[in-house]
Amino acid sequence: MGAAIFLVLLAIYSAGYAGHVYSADDISSLSVGWSIAYQGDFEARLDAWTARFPDQSNTFGPAGEVYSKKGPLLAFLAAFVYRITSGAGLPVTPLITTLNLGVTAVAGWLLFNLSRQAGFGPRQAAASALAWGLLTPALAYSRFFFTEPLAALGLVAACLSALRFSGWAGSFGAGLGLSFAALARPAALALVPAILPLVAPRLWASGRLLGFSLGLLPGILGLGLYNAVRFGNPLVAGLSPVETFSTPPWVGIPGLLWSPGRGLLFFAPAALIGLAGLPFAWKVHRRLAVTSALMVLGHLVLYGTWYGWHGGHAWGPRFLVPALPFLALGSGPLLGGWAERGPVFKAITVTLPGLSLIVQAAGFLTDFNRAPQPRGSTDPLLWELPSPAWTVPLELLLRGQLDPVWARHGLWPVPVLLGGAATLALVAGLRNFRGRLLVGLVGLALTLAALGYQIGVAASETAPHELGLAEALSALQNQVRPQDAVILAAPYVQTWLLDHYRLPNPTLGLTEDSLRLEPRFRLTLSRLLKPGGQLWLLVQGFAFPDPAAELDAELHRELCWTGPVNSFGGVRITRFLVPGNFQNLGVQAAFGQSLRLRASAWDGTGVLAPGDAFCVRLEWETGGPDGPANAYVSVQVLDATGKLIAQHDGPPGAGFDQPGPTVIDNHGLLLPDHLTDGTFYLTVVVYNPATFERHHLEAGRDRLTLAAFRIKGPAR
Questions:
Q1: Counting CB atoms within 10 angstroms of each CB, which of 17, 84, 495, 624 has the fewest?
Q2: Which pLDDT belongs to residue 533?
Q3: pLDDT of residue 517
Q4: pLDDT tens digit sequence for 200-226
Q5: CA 684 to CA 634: how far, in whole Å?
Q6: Is the pLDDT of residue 175 over 90?
Q7: Which of 103, 108, 69 is nearest to 180 (CA)?
Q8: Cα separation of 279 and 277, whole Å?
């Protein structure tokens, strides 16, 4: 019957498959997985924007790196999928988001086996497993790329090992299970006291304490090494000063239990059945009942005092999800002998699961992001009744605005097929072995076929802006060099980039809806830049240049823009040169009354080769009736006959306001590949962009020569 429980849950979970991710937590783990697979490090480089906020999923490393605050296990699993699909053209994110479907179903199967191992009957064990899998937020979290299902799996596996295997092996397996949970959610290490009653009542005599400790080592050492590599200290996980256990327990614990916006009783009323059944579980297996109670209590105390007890952007009390299998353990014993119970008991045990199923269906079949999310632990959304956190998804459910792949595309045969698979799985539990095996295999085949079809449909979904991104990315891949760096500033397309971006170059993903730069991002940015290299900026949805965009302003102050912008359906690519050591050219001049050139320098030399690139830095003193707004600076390369070879035009300082009396004005120039040996001249012209009338020097000339250089060598 355990296999049947797994198949039932997997078939039902597959009906909620959406093929995309939902929150910054999801994307943070995906981004780290991408970096492990393709960059060989632990940076969340394609999801850097949340590092700006102290209570978000990412943070800054000591040298400006961007790291995730999440446990590493989910990221490593994502990295595995990235690697096995690399070069195969398979849809990565749609495949990765199937992970928790199987993880949650396996957790239900292990819970069934844990109940049986404790001495519960098969129907009681099945009731506990189905209560966990269908009547709690575990149903919704099966379709999210969160760490809670993995943590639940590890905790249930730890308890099952402690009961299933005697002596040293059982305690060692319990430690490994807790290590697994800790690598998913490091706070699971605080639950060691909850598992100790199961590990051994005679710790010293049996040696089980040693086995349990050895089993914990992979989790402790793994987390310590992960932190040491990133932050230089095994005890530092990147948490900000605001992320502390600062919530009074009389606020956080009631919030987790009965607040309308996150409370367990609003999102899973059937939890009352499990709670009422724990005394019955005590009669069957006392140590498991004690561990179950400690698991639930431990999660309540641990997360009820956490500064963000509500779990942020989430569905229901997500921090309690790993503890809910142990609360569900009481459901089976309480429901035993249901047919002989009185009418009041029957009414309660039908009504509460029914309400739970309706609420969980709303979170399972709709996009919870469409409901308002709390902005802090004191947000009225958490406490007002009714709370939009669960009433809005209910309204979406009633209106038929569903989120799974089959619903988005009107593929109604898919849930029918999955319903048939779940029915076959239930039937498989009632037949002889051959019949169970045959019917179970048919049910599994139907489930995998329906899931695989939905994965293909999800992979084929293309938003209009993605066409421009694909074209821009193709152009970028054809031009970027190994020593170059890339900045991706494309809001709300992180998952698309995680699916399609494969350049090995140093990369920073500023995927947000503004180009503001957190001061520490300047350190992050400096890590990308190598003197003499190039920086490519891929931006979606922003004008160029945008004087209000701090990123554009920063790049124009420090780097040298090379000129025309390539645009692909709202996506632009801009190239900057990273200057090397500037050499003073010693040229000063005045262009009319509006601009005075106070200093000039370049990072070129007296001899260059065809195809070379170099930076020119001019320092202007602005003023006069024309002003810099009415002037453009053109830096040009001319041959010996005065023929224009290369140029770069723009307003002084690219039009960005700069502090101080002078304006730093950088220009990047690219020499054509076809040039032959000869002498060339670097010159400056200032003109009115509206009339193209040139500003004159004091001697009456309209062009200033900064330097002469030679071209020597074959075209590259």
A1: 84
A2: 87
A3: 67
A4: 766 555 678 888 989 999 999 999 999
A5: 6
A6: yes
A7: 103
A8: 6
- Give CA separation, 211 vs 193, 199, 200, 208, in Å: 15, 9, 11, 5
Q: Are 310 and 253 in contact (CB under 8 A)?
A: no
- What are the structure tokens assigned to 34, written together? 């991408």
300 vs 303: CA distance, rounded Å = 6
Q: What is the pLDDT of residues 308-334, one digit of tens each?
A: 999 988 899 999 999 999 999 988 888
Strands (E) in 55-166, as ranges, are 58-60, 66-68
Any idea what the Cα angle at residue 483 is, between residues 481 and 489, rounded to 5°?
75
Whole-angstrom distance, CA of residue 94 vs CA of residue 408: 15
CA distances to 231, 238, 242, 286 from 228, in Å: 5, 11, 22, 41
Identify the CA nearest to 12 among candidates 129, 150, 92.
129
User: What's the average model confidence in pLDDT over 283-291?
Assistant: 90
List the structure tokens of 389: 């956190």
Q: What residues form DSSP beta bridges with 634?
A: 649, 685
Distances (CA, A) of 375 to 23, 137, 160, 259, 669: 14, 21, 39, 15, 47
For residue 431, the model assigns a pLDDT of 56
Do residues 413 and 405 touch, judged by C-beta distance below 8 A? no
Say if residue 72 is preceded by a cis peptide, omega within 30 of 0.
no
Helices 167-184/208-231 angle, 10° precision: 20
* Cis, bond preceding 545 (omega within 30 deg of 0): yes
The alpha carbon of 645 is separated from its chain's Cα centroid by a whole number of angstroms, namely 46
Instruction: Give the whole-angstrom CA distance, residue 93 versus residue 460.
Output: 12
Cα–Cα distance between 285 and 115 in angstroms, integer? Answer: 10
Confidence band of 440 (pLDDT split at 50, 70, 90): confident
- In 3D, which of 360, 431, 419, 424 has the Cα closest to residue 394? 360
Tokens representing residue 155 in the block: 């905790």
pLDDT one-digit tens code per residue, 622-673: 775 555 567 899 999 999 999 999 999 988 888 887 777 889 999 999 999 8
- Cα 176 off chain centre by: 27
Q: What's the Cα-to-Cα distance from 670 to each of 256, 422, 653, 681, rounded to whole Å? A: 61, 64, 19, 14
- First CA to last CA across the chain, in angstroms? 70
CA distance 430 to 286: 30
pLDDT of 88 strictly over 80:
no
**CA-based R_g, the chain, Å:** 31
Torsion of CA 686, 692, 698, 699, to 10 degrees: 110
The string of pLDDT tens digits covering residues 672-699 is: 988 888 999 999 999 988 889 998 887 7
Cα gap 395→402, rounded to integer Å: 11
Q: Which residues of 12-48 are buried (b: 16+ CB within 10 A; e: fewer)?
A: bbbbbbbbbbbbbbbbbbbbbbbbbbbbeebbbbbbb
Residue 716: pLDDT above 50?
Answer: no
Distance, in Å, from the CA atom of 388 to the CA atom of 315, rounded to the nearest integer, reads 11
What are φ and ψ of residue 414, in 5° steps? -65, -50
Query: What is the DSSP secondary-structure string of 445-512?
Result: HHHHHHHHHHHHHHHH---HHHHHHHHHHHHHHHH--TT-EEEEE-TT-HHHHHHH----S-EEE--S
Alpha-carbon gap, residue 568 to 359, rounded angstroms: 44
Give the SS3 label for residue 219: helix
